[in-house]
Design a protein that fits this description.
This protein is about 30% helix and about 25% strand. By secondary structure, it is α+β, with helices and mostly antiparallel strands. The chain folds into three domains: about 1-35; about 50-220; about 225-435, Rossmann fold (3-Layer(aba) Sandwich), CATH 3.40.50.1110. The strands form six sheets. A six-stranded antiparallel beta sheet has the order 7-6-11-3-13-14, with no helix packed on it. Strands 1, 4, 9, 10 and 16 form a five-stranded antiparallel beta sheet that branches.
Length: about 450
């Protein structure tokens, strides 16, 4: 009996030894993989992926498709190199790129991608600095087919970026996209380049065709301790009236201010705006109520949201008391819904008042019915206490002698959009203190 018990103990011990021995290589393999995939994460546990630049994806209107010969009857960018530059907000040692096929009619087959620094650090140039080009991969492969309506995120790439720097992203599409329904951001205010053939690593693209649009590229992320502020907006945030290849939209000016203050250097400013965008109904791009999930809640590292929209909803609704009362009520409801959804994700929401459009054709009406709606929405933004803070851009932008209109020094000429001085004034009106990380109050998301 004693001998049998001893044999049983030996058998169990041997089995346990084998089991432990079998697990050792697995543990080593996992540890090695973690070390290879994320050495920065191990060294800096507070780091995470955060957007340093974004572009709101849109369905490309016919007038904004790539010019001939890069658009055919039912295809675009066949055997074409596309080179684009973007402007970062915060820096980091590692980067990932996001490509969108949100509005593509068919799958988007990307053959190859590279990232580099532009010559002289400039925006909107076709030349890159020698020795800076790096290939981008997707699960270790040079290209990827992105399904209809989907997004692709690249592998992490060791590519150090500094804040407020320009970066060049080059794509090559061997077969192009077999549809004229494609995803882009027309209001880039930045020059991009097309050239037939594979020129993914070329230092320059002589003879290339240029346009001021972005295509397919929807985000660049960095591995960082930074946090992001996303801005839902329309052409006033997208930068109509700013200077091409200068990055002087008001979010760019805000970024420069935050980078100059050591307490806010870790804030990424992310421009999720598009010309003609509306809160309630689709226009140029999906309505803000619908796209907030994609453009804000699904983005990396967002801590704050600024909502600066509504002028296109008021301006495109009929200039009758009934129609404007309806749009006022619906805007207030939509803003409350956006706040509720963002709060559920732990994101603070700041409301910006709608700036004047008096004298604009066709938005201004002689009876001032639309102006009354603007004032009513602004009164709710200022006094409802539903937003976590109010950014009173109307107060900064309006002409004290005629509050229905923009200050002439800020008006680009159409009495709706701003010139660079006006955009700087908007940026200056945003308090730095809104972007200092503090704990969320108890019950923050209960609303």
């Amino acid at each position: 009996m004693s001998r049998s018990l001893s044999m049983l103990k030996l058998t169990v011990a041997a089995a346990l030894t084998v089991a432990v021995a079998a697990t050792v290589p697995l543990v080593r393999t996992i540890s090695h993989a973690a070390a290879v995939a994320g050495p920065t994460a191990a060294a800096n546990p507070a780091d995470h992926w955060v957007d340093t630049w974004v572009s709101m994806p849109q369905l490309t209107e016919p007038a904004n498709l790539p010019p001939p010969p890069f658009t055919g009857t039912n295809e675009v960018l066949v055997n074409t190199t596309l080179r684009q530059t973007i402007h970062t907000s915060v820096g980091g040692q590692h980067v990932r790129l996001r490509f969108s096929n949100a509005f593509g009619g068919v799958d988007l087959p990307i053959t190859a991608v590279s990232v580099a620094l532009p010559v002289n650090g400039q925006a909107g140039v076709s030349a890159i600095r020698p020795g800076t080009s790096r290939p981008v991969t997707f699960d270790g492969q040079p290209g990827i087919d992105i399904p209809v309506g989907s997004l692709a995120v690249s592998d992490p790439l060791d590519f150090p970026l500094i804040p407020q720097s320009n970066v060049t992203v080059t794509l090559y599409l061997a077969t192009g996209q077999a549809s004229t329904n494609i995803t882009s951001h027309p209001g880039s205010r930045t020059t991009s380049y097309f050239l037939t053939g594979n020129h993914i690593g070329d230092l320059d693209l002589p003879g290339a065709t240029s346009v001021a649009h972005w295509y397919f590229l929807s985000g660049v992320e960095v591995w960082s301790r930074a946090e992001g502020v996303a801005i839902l907006g329309d052409s006033l945030t997208d930068g109509r009236g700013s200077t091409t290849d200068t990055n002087n939209r008001w979010p760019d000016d805000l970024l420069a201010r935050l980078q100059a203050d050591h307490e806010t250097t870790g804030v990424a400013v992310l421009n999720q705006a598009a010309g003609g965008n509306r809160v309630l109904n689709d226009g140029l791009g999906p309505n803000a109520s619908g796209r907030v999930d994609r453009d804000v809640l699904a983005q990396s590292g967002i801590a704050w949201l600024i909502v600066f929209e509504g002028v296109n909803d008021i301006g495109t609704a009929a200039a009758t008391p009934a129609a404007q009362q309806q749009v006022t009520t619906q805007l207030i409801t939509a803003f409350q819904q956006i706040i509720t959804r963002a709060h559920a994700k732990g994101i603070r929401v700041y409301g910006a008042t709608i700036t004047p459009f008096g004298g604009n054709n066709p938005y201004d009406d002689p009876q001032g019915v639309r102006e009354s709606a603007r004032q009513a929405v602004n009164a709710w933004i200022r006094t409802s206490h539903r937003f976590d803070a109010v950014i009173d851009l109307d107060r900064v932008a309006r002409d004290p002698a005629n509050p229905r209109q923009l200050l002439p020094a800020f008006d680009v000429g159409d009495h709706l959009h701003f010139n660079p001085a006006g955009y700087q004034a908007l940026a200056n009106a945003v308090p730095d203190r809104l972007f200092r990380l503090t704990p969320l109050p108890p019950g923050f998301a209960f609303n």
